Amino acid sequence: MGSRRDRSAGTPATTELTRLGVAFGVHPYEHDPAAASYGLEAAAALSVPPGQVFKTLLVEADRGLAVGIVPVDRSLDLKALAAALGLKKVSMADPAAAERSTGYVVGGISPIGQKARLRVVVDASAQGFDTVYVSAGKRGLQVQLTPADLAAAAGASFAAISATT
Fold first, then answer.
1. Max Cα-Cα span within the chain
2. pLDDT tens for each residue of the chain, 165 residues long
């Protein structure tokens, strides 16, 4: 992992990981605003399998917003996420609401260091990797950490919540 703690990254996510004493790597890359998929762009730029890079998606539930974290080459299974949260149904959150709640911009939402503490579920496939990549809180910047550290830092549980796209 090359636990390179680049404090110049200076995002709420990297600040929170440092505060928690979590070992993590910071991986910047040149972001293209025209990229069709920011997650797939990150995987290609970092030469990492897309299944090891995870995107942070916000959903609207009857009890407010919640977070699903799935591989960038898969989609979020809304029914599976609802079940994992003990709810009947969830729907994708409005991007503006997601940005207000997290303090991050869409395409750079990190599951770590969000303004409001939301319920978070990470796809169980993450547990098959020694380390995974998630947004560090801005486009063009990923953090690498163990799935267990991701769950601990985000207050997350694991469940099978992804589907093939």
1. 42
2. 444 444 445 899 999 999 999 999 999 999 988 888 899 999 999 999 999 999 999 999 988 999 999 999 999 999 999 999 999 999 999 999 999 999 999 999 999 999 989 999 999 999 999 999 999 999 999 999 999 999 999 999 999 999 987
CB 116 within 8 A of CB 102: yes
Q: Yes or no: say if 123 and 162 are a contact pair by the CB < 8 Å rule.
A: yes
Are the C-beta atoms of 103 and 119 separated by less than 8 Å? Answer: no
Contact, 143 vs 25, CB < 8 A? yes
Cα 56–Cα 57–Cα 59 angle in degrees, nearest 5 = 145
Q: Name the pTM for this structure.
A: 0.92
User: Tokens in use for 130?
Assistant: 């020694």
Q: Are 7 and 14 in contact (CB under 8 A)?
A: yes
Burial of 7 (0-12, 13-18, 19+ CB in 10 A): exposed
Q: What three-state secondary structure class fits 88? A: coil
